[in-house]
Write a structure and sequence with these properties.
With about 260 residues, the chain is α/β, with parallel strands linked by helices. The protein is built from ten helices and 15 strands. The longest helix is centred in the N-terminal third of the chain and has 13 residues.
């Protein structure tokens, strides 16, 4: 290992949002591509980068600072979260393979979920801890790097884990939702993982607290064309309602 090489890479990650593997190969012509890939993996394990196709994204430029902390959100809109969670539970059939997103709304869903036989995959460590209080569900926690802001698992390890998992119904919670940009997230790696879940799931159910409407964060998870059902705590704006129905999306207003 050449410590000075990693020092240079660390400096590049501090200066640029993205470093291409080809760029590193040009800077270090005497070093193999495999070694440079291992360097990228090293920085991912250190929480300084996210390994993506063709290089690495700097965590300095991939933040969730525009989102409130998990602990602040935990005490907000409790009634809305409970309404959404109870309504979402009605969509679940015993014996299904479920994906539960991270976040405070899903944590509420996990606490209210009846003790029945399901296979559940989640990216939320606290969601998994809530689920194992029950005796019957099989709970799988995705492995990878922990995002402190959202208390969620992300990174290339999480992506690889999900590659071999079949999902019947995925319950997704966006950080923002707008007609123009769809479901959005403030973290690129989290967004990448949710995109994969959306593509793999037979049904995608989006849990929407209407306080997140008309809020757009930097990274789009998907548009209405990838969604099957929206569960919201209140009526959606007319333009979103019309667009969703045109896309064949079922809208459920939790009462």
């Amino acid at each position: 290992m050449n410590p000075s090489r990693r020092t240079v890479i660390r400096e590049l990650l501090a200066e640029k949002p993205f470093i291409a593997l080809k760029e590193l190969e040009a800077i270090f012509p005497e070093v193999s591509s495999m070694t440079l890939r291992r360097d990228i993996e090293y920085f991912e394990k250190q929480g300084e980068a996210i390994k993506v196709r063709g290089g690495a994204r700097s965590m300095k430029y991939i933040t969730t600072t525009m989102e409130d902390s998990f602990h602040k959100r935990l005490g907000e809109n409790l009634s809305a979260k409970e309404k959404i969670a109870r309504c979402a539970i009605e969509l679940i059939e015993t014996g299904r393979s479920l994906f539960l997103d991270s976040g405070t709304t899903v944590l509420t869903l996990a606490s209210l979920l009846p003790d029945e036989r399901h296979t559940i995959i989640t990216t939320g460590p606290n969601v998994a801890l809530e689920l194992i209080k029950k005796k019957k569900p099989i709970v799988n926690l995705v492995g990878g790097m922990v995002n402190r802001d959202n208390i969620s698992i992300l990174g290339s390890q999480a992506i690889r884990f999900l590659e071999d998992i079949n999902i019947d119904i995925a319950f997704i919670v966006p950080s923002g939702f707008s007609l123009k940009n769809g479901l959005t997230s403030g973290n690129y790696s989290e967004c990448e993982l949710k995109r994969m879940v959306v593509e793999k799931a037979r049904q995608v159910v989006v849990l929407v607290d209407t306080s997140k409407l008309d809020r757009s964060l930097p990274f789009t998870v998907c548009g209405l064309d990838k969604i099957h059902t929206i569960v919201a705590n209140d009526y959606l704006p007319d333009d979103i309602t019309e667009a969703a129905r045109s896309a064949g999306v079922n809208i459920i207003i939790a009462q």
